[in-house]
Write a structure and sequence with these properties.
The structure is a single chain. This protein folds into two domains: 170 residues, 3-Layer(aba) Sandwich (Rossmann fold); 71 residues, no CATH class. By secondary structure, it is α/β, with parallel strands linked by helices. It has ten helices and ten strands. It starts with 12 loop residues before the first strand and ends with a helix. The protein is globular, with a radius of gyration of 18 Å. The protein binds adenosine-5'-triphosphate. The site of adenosine-5'-triphosphate has 12 residues, from helix 1. One of its GO terms (molecular function) is ATP binding.
C-alpha cells in the first residue's frame, strides 16, 4: 500500500497591537501589528535594539506582552505551543554553550514536547533526530559538545532541533550571524525547501543583501511596525532609510548593489 505524506497545513502569524515593556521600564515594542502570511518566508528587519527578538519571544510565548494579542494558525500562543506548531532557532547569545550536552542531545530536545515525563525517545524520535541532522549536514558532529562547534555549526545544530520539532511555523533569530557564505547559502536552500513543504518562516537578519534573493515578504520594525508587504514593494531605499534612521545613502547603495549582484 502506498503511504502519502500529509501536507504541512499553512499557518499564519497574526500580531495585533502588541506592546512590551521590560522590568527596567524600557518600552521595547509599541503597538506592533503585522501578519506573517502562511507558507511564506518573511524577513524581519530593523536596527539593533529595535525589538526583533522581543517580537520573536512574544510570538513564541516566552514573554507576555503588556498589551495586544498574538495568534498562530488562529490559536492563542499557549495553545499553538502545546500543539508543537512553532519551532525557534535562538540567537547564539541566548544559549549556554558550556552546558554538557552533545549536538545529538540538543536536536533530541526538539522532540521533548512529544515525550512523556520519562523522556524515553521512541524509534520515531531517533529517526527524526538523525534525518534532521542529515538535512543540515551535521551528522559527523553529532557527538560533539555544543560549545566545541564553530559559529555556523552551532546555527545548523539549532536549525536541526527546529526540524526535529516538526514545527509548522519556524522562527529564526539572526541565523546568518557568524556564518560563512557557503553555509548561509546552504541554510537559504534549506529554508526554500521548507517553504516548498508548506512551512511558514519568519527570519530576522542583518544581512540585507540576501533578503531579496529568498524572502517573499518583509516586515520593517523599529519599536513598532513601520512597513510590511511583498519584498519588491516594501524593501525599498525609502523604507530602509526610515527604519534605520540616518543610515547613509551610500551604505544603502552598497546594499542594493550587492543584492542585485547576488540575484543575477
Ligand atoms: N531582558 C531584557 N530586559 C530589559 N531590556 C531588554 C531586555 N531584552 C531586550 N531589552 C531591550 O529591549 C529593546 C529591544 O531589544 P531586542 O533584543 O528585542 O532588539 P533586537 O532588534 O533583537 O536587537 P539586535 O538586533 O541587537 O539583536 C532594547 O532596547 C533592549 O535593550
Amino acid at each position: 500500500m502506498q503511504t502519502t505524506v500529509p501536507p504541512v497545513p499553512h499557518l499564519d502569524i497574526s500580531v495585533d497591537n502588541v506592546s512590551v515593556t521590560y522590568n527596567n521600564a524600557r518600552l521595547a515594542l509599541y503597538n506592533a501589528s503585522c501578519t506573517v502570511e502562511p507558507g511564506t518566508i518573511t524577513a524581519l528587519v530593523g536596527p539593533n535594539g529595535s525589538g526583533k527578538s522581543t517580537l520573536f519571544k512574544s510570538i513564541m510565548g516566552f514573554l507576555q506582552p503588556n498589551q495586544g494579542r498574538v495568534r498562530v494558525g488562529g490559536l492563542p500562543v499557549q495553545k499553538a505551543q502545546k500543539r508543537q506548531l512553532m519551532a525557534y532557532v535562538p540567537q547564539a547569545d541566548e544559549v549556554d554553550w558550556n552546558f554538557p550536552v552533545s549536538v545529538y542531545d540538543v536536536v533530541m530536545m526538539g522532540r521533548y514536547g512529544y515525550m512523556n515525563l520519562l523522556r524515553m525517545p521512541s524509534q520515531k524520535d531517533r529517526r527524526l533526530v538523525m534525518s534532521s541532522l542529515e538535512r543540515v549536514g551535521m551528522v559527523p558532529y553529532r557527538d560533539r559538545q555544543i560549545g566545541e562547534l564553530s559559529g555556523g555549526q552551532k546555527k545548523r545544530a539549532f536549525l536541526a532541533r527546529a526540524l526535529a520539532q516538526e514545527g509548522k511555523v519556524i522562527l529564526l533569530d539572526e541565523p546568518f550571524t557568524g556564518v560563512d557564505v557557503k553555509t548561509e547559502k546552504g541554510m537559504i536552500d534549506l529554508l526554500l525547501q521548507l517553504r516548498a513543504e508548506g512551512h511558514t518562516i519568519l527570519i530576522s537578519t542583518h544581512d540585507l543583501a540576501s533578503i531579496s534573493t529568498f524572502c517573499d515578504r518583509v516586515i520593517l520594525l523599529n519599536r513598532t511596525i513601520l512597513a510590511e508587504g511583498k519584498t519588491a514593494d516594501t524593501f525599498t531605499k525609502e523604507n530602509l532609510e526610515m527604519t534605520f534612521g540616518g543610515l547613509p545613502i551610500t551604505k544603502l547603495k552598497q546594499v542594493f548593489d550587492a543584492a542585485e549582484v547576488r540575484a543575477s
